[in-house]
Amino acid sequence: MNETLYTVNNLWILIAAALVFIMHLGFASLEAGFVRKKNTVNILFKNSMIIGIGLITYYLVGFNMMYPGDVFAGGYFGFSGIGAIAPEGDAGGIAYADGAYSYYSDFIFQAMFAATCATIVSGAVAERIKLGAFLLFSAIFVAFIYPIIGMWKWGGGWLDSLDVPFYDFAGSTIVHAAGGFAALAGAIVLGARKGKYTKSGIKAIPGHSLPFAAVGVFLLWFGWFGFNGGSVLSADPGNVSLVFVTTSLSAAAGAIGAFIMSYLLFKTHDLSMVLNGILGGLVGITAGADLMTNPSWAIVIGFIAGLIIPVSVVFFDKMKVDDPVGATSVHLVCGVWGTLAVGLFGTKAGWDQFISQLIGVAAVGAFAFATAFAIFYFLKVTVGIRVSAEHELKGLDITEHEMEAYSGMMDEGGQQWAFSA
Amino acid sequence: MNETLYTVNNLWILIAAALVFIMHLGFASLEAGFVRKKNTVNILFKNSMIIGIGLITYYLVGFNMMYPGDVFAGGYFGFSGIGAIAPEGDAGGIAYADGAYSYYSDFIFQAMFAATCATIVSGAVAERIKLGAFLLFSAIFVAFIYPIIGMWKWGGGWLDSLDVPFYDFAGSTIVHAAGGFAALAGAIVLGARKGKYTKSGIKAIPGHSLPFAAVGVFLLWFGWFGFNGGSVLSADPGNVSLVFVTTSLSAAAGAIGAFIMSYLLFKTHDLSMVLNGILGGLVGITAGADLMTNPSWAIVIGFIAGLIIPVSVVFFDKMKVDDPVGATSVHLVCGVWGTLAVGLFGTKAGWDQFISQLIGVAAVGAFAFATAFAIFYFLKVTVGIRVSAEHELKGLDITEHEMEAYSGMMDEGGQQWAFSA
Amino acid sequence: MNETLYTVNNLWILIAAALVFIMHLGFASLEAGFVRKKNTVNILFKNSMIIGIGLITYYLVGFNMMYPGDVFAGGYFGFSGIGAIAPEGDAGGIAYADGAYSYYSDFIFQAMFAATCATIVSGAVAERIKLGAFLLFSAIFVAFIYPIIGMWKWGGGWLDSLDVPFYDFAGSTIVHAAGGFAALAGAIVLGARKGKYTKSGIKAIPGHSLPFAAVGVFLLWFGWFGFNGGSVLSADPGNVSLVFVTTSLSAAAGAIGAFIMSYLLFKTHDLSMVLNGILGGLVGITAGADLMTNPSWAIVIGFIAGLIIPVSVVFFDKMKVDDPVGATSVHLVCGVWGTLAVGLFGTKAGWDQFISQLIGVAAVGAFAFATAFAIFYFLKVTVGIRVSAEHELKGLDITEHEMEAYSGMMDEGGQQWAFSA
Amino acid sequence: MKKIEAIIRSRKFDEVKESLAEKGIHFFTFYEVKGFGHQKGKELSYRGAIYDAGYIARIKLEIILSDEFVETAYETIAKAAHTGENGDGLILVTPVLSIKNIRSGLEGSKSINI
Amino acid sequence: MKKIEAIIRSRKFDEVKESLAEKGIHFFTFYEVKGFGHQKGKELSYRGAIYDAGYIARIKLEIILSDEFVETAYETIAKAAHTGENGDGLILVTPVLSIKNIRSGLEGSKSINI
Amino acid sequence: MKKIEAIIRSRKFDEVKESLAEKGIHFFTFYEVKGFGHQKGKELSYRGAIYDAGYIARIKLEIILSDEFVETAYETIAKAAHTGENGDGLILVTPVLSIKNIRSGLEGSKSINI
Ligand SMILES: Nc1ncnc2c1ncn2[C@@H]1O[C@H](COP(=O)(O)OP(=O)(O)O)[C@@H](O)[C@H]1O
Ligand SMILES: Nc1ncnc2c1ncn2[C@@H]1O[C@H](COP(=O)(O)OP(=O)(O)O)[C@@H](O)[C@H]1O
Ligand SMILES: Nc1ncnc2c1ncn2[C@@H]1O[C@H](COP(=O)(O)OP(=O)(O)O)[C@@H](O)[C@H]1O
Q1: Considering just the CA atoms, what is the radius of gyration of chain A in Å?
Q2: pLDDT at A413 over 70
Q3: ∠A371-A377-A380 over CA atoms, to 5°?
Q4: Residue F28 beta carbon below 6 angstroms from any ligand 2 atom
Q5: Does pLDDT of F7 surpass 70?
């Protein structure tokens, strides 16, 4: 491996890490836009803390639990010690990954993924979870649950050692479905927001700013170039460019699918559905972005993901699973769909692969759901996870943060006079 | 060509594609900020769909119409078949473009450009066009009109085969003036927004959120590093860095030019003009960003573009061409200016070049205007393109989407009580 | 040096420049979010102009004053002529910096830094400074003061020639503390906003949009990958990846530090503090991001920066230094802390280094404060720097720009009827 | 002195304002209100669930007038705000016991700005 | 005819509205107001400084009624808006001299929408 | 019982509030209104076109008072809200027929919070 190619490869992984970072802004904007004004500071606070907590816990334990080394190959769990410090010299450099990236590039790219997984949960439990409980959950999830799941496949664990190995290119299962199942567990343990499911039916609780939500989705798409493109784990021109194309086409088709289905179901053009449709397309292609050598397959996958979104949103509402941002539909449902699609389309398509995909996503889903459920339940019976009805009514911004997201927006002539009182 | 250099070059084209992608968020934010609150969901919806429709139609037909291959060299039209699937092996890789980029990198970079061109139109026709008609127009424009124009120059068509070939580095004409002329056609066919031009004069219809508009412009500038920088079509250090410098200095000078001219004309400091001035500078330098080996030329070009902007906005208003976001001034006028500036400044400056530039921009302008006019007119007499007066009054958000962009922004104490009714 | 490695290195510097550019959007969003609605257009206007003015003045004089060449080595001031035009051929290319970057890459990267330094000031003087006076200040600051300071260290001046050279990797002192001290001078010369410090105590003047502020901080973090990562001045895998890791961990720890300290001090979870804490962590690590070969040191530095933030904000409020966005706490205080931390942690830690750091930051601080104070004072007694009390009350948007940031946000049913009057 | 209160359509506001001005009535106070009446608010839809604020947005005017102007104002508003469709709103006259102009300190009908 | 004005808690709005509807009173106008009373606004905190708008948010209803409905409306609101805690608000009855429905042109109690 | 209504400058709000408090009047309701009067709104400019909302922003206070407090409140507001420049606004006294405190159920002047 030549030094220069190593430099290029490594540079790409780092840029990809920065792009995955910006997904955190995407999630923050999307979730802020989809919650009510009174809970906006709270959701932004959670998103600001998750990235902080996520990176540090992943540094301390997560990374070495997810990539514990060859001795744990084929296993269910491993750990190689606290902290992520690069081996000296070439071992942490050109020799670390055959000239594809350095130790620290690996760490930072993986750490950004880890934090993403926890962020997925925050949207589904928004507007009613206690701040402290949520931060505790996130820390545990990023430190232990996500790394264990990741280890099964990317860390060389048992899913990677099946006869026909489970395939998950960039994490439809490992990141998205895992996060989505945890989100589902959280939404179930918490229960719905007050006033969402009433005797007279399902009530709409519109997000306070669709412009923010739209910004979030475009930023997520932008970040996904790093999420999927970086998962090539080198700057290989053929693979990275294919992944860019399949990722974009799937997202594009997701928009169109959701456009059509939401029109069929609701007879209207629901922006929030098209936005979710784009995300569904992105999540859907993530498992096999590098396998769709005919990009038309990516269009099919994304289009179906887009069709699924409105149906799934309605379904979860019928089940009284209250998910303000659609995280379960986007990440769980489309994550499962994308994982299975690897068995249906692209260069690995086939019955055996399909079965392995099913095993993989079922195992991960069950584990993520069960552990998240257990943690949320444990927090519920100990510190409590749900804010009081009164706090929920007043909003978490005032009750947990003593702040408001917007001040003086209503004042004419720019006079925020009330605050000089 | 060595494999590693190919990897670097290709990586840059991909990153540039991602940057051009983010311009779509830039346009979405800018346009959302410049329309009234009641049409915000609608404009975001259009921008979300255009990128989806644009990528997919360009994949299906556009790309192969824009780059039909050598057999059509010097011609006016060509087509090499449905779908964009890379040739096998090196032919779609290192050999595809002499080691500059792979087939798929080429496709995705070009596809992002194509969608951009359609997006330019959306701002000018905002707040009154029917959603369906607009989406139809966009699909036709990206699938056929833009690729035909692009083929004339970048696809090796007749403009590229003039004695002194027409020059358009990154698309002042091909993308921006083309989009701008189509925007003009749309604005004319549609007519002005109600209440804009009244007996008592021209009325201001202020955009609902200048902060969003400002975010949009900064993101557009950011994306322009990819738009212009990527148009070097390799990572060549000298050229890409020159292009970064000329692009930035021109944008900077555009801000200053618009600052001065809007103060002279209006005796005030109009943020929306400075924002448009930045864009004018960016559009202006786009035709010759690689030719201004003395960056001071870029400053002159951008400065003049900035001066033009307020004058042009006032001019179109006098002509009763209602363009809520200034797309015609930015993309059409500054696109023409930038194209001609190639004949006046930089390494290609000269009379013959100037004439070629004039031919190119006139031909493209006429074709874009005429075809867009025809499509809009056809849509007008068939499906209809303008929403009813009542819908326009109530806003497209409620009438076309049954949604509002902001919910509960006015509630004190965070109580969105009205929705629990 | 091989051509390909040069291409990679150079590409990274350019991408880093684009990332530093996006920090300007970060600052614009952050500052817009932290001011009152009535001053939002004004702050966006200033931020839009600063980048324009900054790039052009830096092109004209700044760059050649900051990097005047070897003849001025060890000195206090140098200048090598107007304008920044690359030497012909390899001298401006592969030979310019030993194959690390071209002349123009160097220029654009440095120019983006320069504009950043001026932007830091804009937040601290917001809501009361005259537009013209501020723009004049910025032009002078970017053209002369910042380049002189930069020359002392990065231009090979006296700080770089100390026995134990002062160390400032990416500008904790040169950019952030310098900007922070200038901000302090500005805030002092201007005085506090009306109603901030009253007989009955310190009044809160909440920013009008915390969502915008949060977006700004995430974008700043994103841009910091370029700010610090690009300061490696090559794409060296080991160094750039280490810098990515230390930068992110320090920002993460800053969030946690501010979370804890603001809870201890205020018994609440103040989002604005956590956001400032992230920035504090970023500023803090900037001086030694490449020296913390044990990333845990970066965590310590960032955590302490985060702890400092709330204390510092309260301190400046007690001193009646009114800084609406916390620029002094973030850039000045954490800039000093980060500079000194180089003497305490990492591979250069040691008493002698600590002393050099102290000398460096003291000299820069004194010079930046004194010159900025002098300029502001001069402007005060000549053109005047503070808007009238009436204008301050009405807001700068209406009085300096005759515009409002938001129009029709309060209208129900999307009717901006008031404007058709 | 009397106070006229009128609840009108937002889009009729300008017309009402201009008609009043023609009769020499330039001064009044107004604010946005919401109303439940024959005309219903438009149903909105969000993520598959339909919701309906129920109310419609209206402008409420308040005009303080000397007795001799009341009739004119009353009729002028009634005419200018009329569309004939559900939702036109209503006009009230209510009593005022006393009034003072803060600037001039004048009381009673002398104090009224017209 | 009378005008009833009621200042109530936002969160009691739906209950009041439904109770009135049960009594056949479907039409009214309302808007958001702020109030100083026994109940104080929550203290907020921003960057270490505490601030307190002091006021609380309330909804104000205005209902124009024929005299025979006044008592019912009065009692209905009083009941539906009651919590017993500080901040419940108050109900007024004020006189109306005349009234006109803009759409129908009808005056007096015939004009009143119920 | 009477109702005092006052339309005042936003920036005089605090002063009025404090002056009232000094006289023992702590409870009132207020909301933002817009007014057309002698003072005109500032002209704004957007992309070369000038526009003018015409109105200015004002605060409206409503205070329910027992008859014996009316005079004091009236004078106190008049003084505290005064600047002498166009735009100071006005104060009205209007009749109240009956009143009920929702929390306590008390009616008449016993019910009035001061
Ligand atoms: N009895 C009432 N009391 C208070 N406001 C009323 C009353 N009736 C109507 N309104 C107000 O007038 C508005 C228009 O009433 P609506 O019944 O829709 O009009 P119309 O009488 O023309 O059919 C309502 O939205 C409400 O604000
Ligand atoms: N005298 C008054 N005049 C006008 N409004 C009042 C008066 N007293 C109370 N209010 C309004 O009623 C609201 C509730 O009053 P409060 O004293 O908190 O309730 P309670 O009487 O149930 O303790 C206040 O916020 C204010 O809007
Ligand atoms: N006749 C009126 N009816 C209702 N409101 C009025 C009337 N006259 C004045 N106002 C209100 O008082 C505000 C101040 O009036 P203005 O004429 O500017 O003050 P001044 O009388 O001190 O010159 C107006 O904006 C309006 O809201």
Answers
A1: 21
A2: no
A3: 145
A4: yes
A5: yes
Q: How far apart are CA C201 and CA F28, in angstroms?
A: 26
Pocket of ligand 3 (CB under 6 A): D 27-29, 62-64, 101, 103, 112-113; F 7, 35-39, 56, 58, 86-90
CA-to-CA distance for C167 and B324, rounded, in angstroms? Answer: 51
Is the ipTM here above 0.90? yes
CA–centroid distance, D84 to ligand 1, in Å, is 13
With H, G, I as helix, E, B as strand and everything else as coil, classify residue D12. Answer: helix
Of the listed ranges A313-317, C277-281, E48-52, the least confidently predicted one is: E48-52
Neighbours, chain B (3 or more CB pairs < 8 A): A, C, D, E, F
CB pairs under 8 A between C and D: 23
Ligand 1 pocket: which residues have CB below 6 Å?
A: D 7, 35-39, 56, 58, 86-90; E 27-29, 62-64, 101, 103, 112-113
Determine whether C208 is exposed, middle or buried from the number of CB atoms within 10 Å of its CB (0-12, 13-18, 19+): buried
Residue D35 CA, ligand 1 centroid: distance in Å: 6
List of residues 6+ apart from C404 with CB closer than 8 A: A414, B206, B210, C41, C397, C398, F44
Give me the residue label for tokens 């009542």: B390
Say how many CA atoms lie within 13 Å of C91 toward its Cβ: 4
Alpha-carbon distance B37 to nearest alpha carbon in chain A (angstroms): 10
Q: What are phi and psi of F62, to 5 degrees?
A: -130, 125
| Spatial distance between the Cα atoms of C121 and C328, rounded to a whole number of angstroms | 9
Would an 8 Å CB–CB cutoff place C265 in contact with chain E? yes
Chain F CB within 8 Å of residue B206 CB: yes
Q: Helices H, strands E: what count in chain C?
A: 16, 2
What DSSP string describes C91-148? GGTTTTTTTS--HHHHHHHHHHHHHHHHHHHHHHTTTTB-HHHHHHHHHHIIIIIHHH
pTM: 0.96
A61-107 pLDDT, tens digit per residue, is: 999 999 999 999 999 999 999 999 999 999 999 999 999 999 999 99
Buried b (16+ CB within 10 A) or exposed e, B358-393: eebbebbbebbbebbbebbebbeeeeebbbeeeebb
pLDDT band at residue C410 using 50, 70 and 90 as cut-offs: low
Q: In this structure, how many other beta carbons lie within 10 angstroms of the beta carbon of residue C390?
A: 9
Q: Nearest-CA neighbor of F28 among E36, A260, A8?
A: E36
Distance CA A216, CA A218 (A): 6
Q: Could you tell me which residues come within 8 angstroms of residue A155 by beta carbon, excluding any fewer than 6 positions away?
A: A66, A67, A68, A72, A78, A147
Cross-chain CB nearest to C415 (options D10, D17, D34): D10
- For residue A359, give both structure tokens: 């095993």
Q: Which pLDDT does position F44 carry in this prediction? A: 87
Considering every ligand atom shown, identify the ligand nearest to the alpha carbon of residue E60 and give its number.
2
Residues 6+ apart with CB under 8 A from B368: B145, B149, B177, B178, B179, B181, B182, B185
How many other CB atoms sit within 10 Å of the CB of residue C214?
A: 30
User: How many CB pairs below 8 Å do chains A and D form together?
Assistant: 37
Residue with token string 């010097």: B74
Ligand 1: which residue has its CA nearest to atom 13? D89
Mutate to test the interface with D, among C410, C411, C412 (most CBs of D within 10 A): C412
Query: Residues near C244 by Cβ (< 8 Å), separated by ≥ 6?
Result: A14, A17, A18, A104, A105, A108, C225, C228, C229
Quick one: which H or E segment has residue F45? strand F44-46
